[in-house]
Amino acid sequence: DAGVIQSPRHEVTEMGQEVTLRCKPISGHNSLFWYRQTMMRGLELLIYFNNNVPIDDSGMPEDRFSAKMPNASFSTLKIQPSEPRDSAVYFCASSLRGLSEAFFGQGTRLTVV
Amino acid sequence: AQSVTQPDIHITVSEGASLELRCNYSYGATPYLFWYVQSPGQGLQLLLKYFSGDTLVQGIKGFEAEFKRSQSSFNLRKPSVHWSDAAEYFCAVGGAESGGGADGLTFGKGTHLIIQP
C-alpha cells in the first residue's frame, strides 16, 4: 500500500485566496484525521471522520476552515479566505476501525503571504 | 479532556548512551498510548503502541516504552542511541470511539532529541 497520500506537498498562496488540501487515506481505513502543526501550538487535531461522517470538528479554528469526505478514499480541507496565520504543515492521517493507531501522510506545507 | 505532557523540550545525548524520554498523560478511560518520531520535513512514523496487556512494549529501531498506570506515564527508552535517532519525538494518547471508529489522537508538544558525537 502506498500509505496516506497528501497533495500538494507544498503550497504558497496569497492572503485572501482559497486553498484546498487533499488526502487519500489507506484503503480499508474507516477513520480520517486532519492535523495542523505549528511551532507555537504543536500538533492540533482539526477534525476527524468515521465512515465518512464528521465526528468532531471542534478543533477547526474558525468558519474559514471546512473539511469534506465525499467517499472513503478522498478528503479535502479548504481554507477560504486564507490568512498568513494559517501558514503551517497540515497532516492527514487514517486508521482502522476501532483502533487509534494513525498512519500519517507526508504533510502539506502551506505558506500564506 | 485528554492531554499529554512531554516535560522535556530538548534533550541532548551522546551517541552510544542510553535515552529516556518522558511522557505523562491524562485520559478518562483506558488509554491507547503511542510514540511517534518525526524527522525534518517528514511525516510522523509510529515507533510503538500500547493498547493492553504487557506494560513493556517493544517498538521499531530498538525503542521500548513502559506503561505505568499509577504514574500516568508512558516513557520511551533506548539502551544505546545512534546519530540517526536525532529527530522530534511525540507521545500521543487516544481511544476507541464508541461507534467503532477511532477518536483523534492528542499529542504532546514533542521532545527534540539531539545526538552528540
Explain this structure to me?
The complex is a heterodimer of chains A (113) and B (117). Chain A has 113 residues and is mainly beta. Chain A has no helices and eleven strands. In chain B, strands 2, 5, 6, 10, 11 and 12 form a six-stranded mixed β-sheet that branches. In chain B, strand 5 and strand 6 (44-50) form a beta hairpin. Classes of the chains: A mainly beta (113), B mainly beta (117). Chain A binds chain B through residues 4, 30-31, 33, 35, 42-43, 45, 48, 50-51, 55-56, 59, 91, 93, 95-107, and chain B through 32, 34, 36, 42-46, 49, 51, 90, 94-97, 99-110.
Q: Give the radius of gyration of chain B.
A: 14 Å
Q: How many E strands of chain A? A: 11
Q: Please describe the biggest sheet of chain A, giving its number of strands, its sense, and whether it closes into a barrel.
A: 7 strands, mixed
Question: Which oligomerization state do the chains in this entry correspond to?
Answer: heterodimer
Q: Which stretches of chain A are poorly predicted, pLDDT < 50 over at least 5 residues?
A: none
Overall mean confidence score, pLDDT of chain A: 93
Compute the separation of the termini of chain B in Å. Answer: 41 Å
Tally of DSSP helical segments of chain A: 0
- Along the chain, the helix and strand elements of chain A come as EEEEEEEEEEE
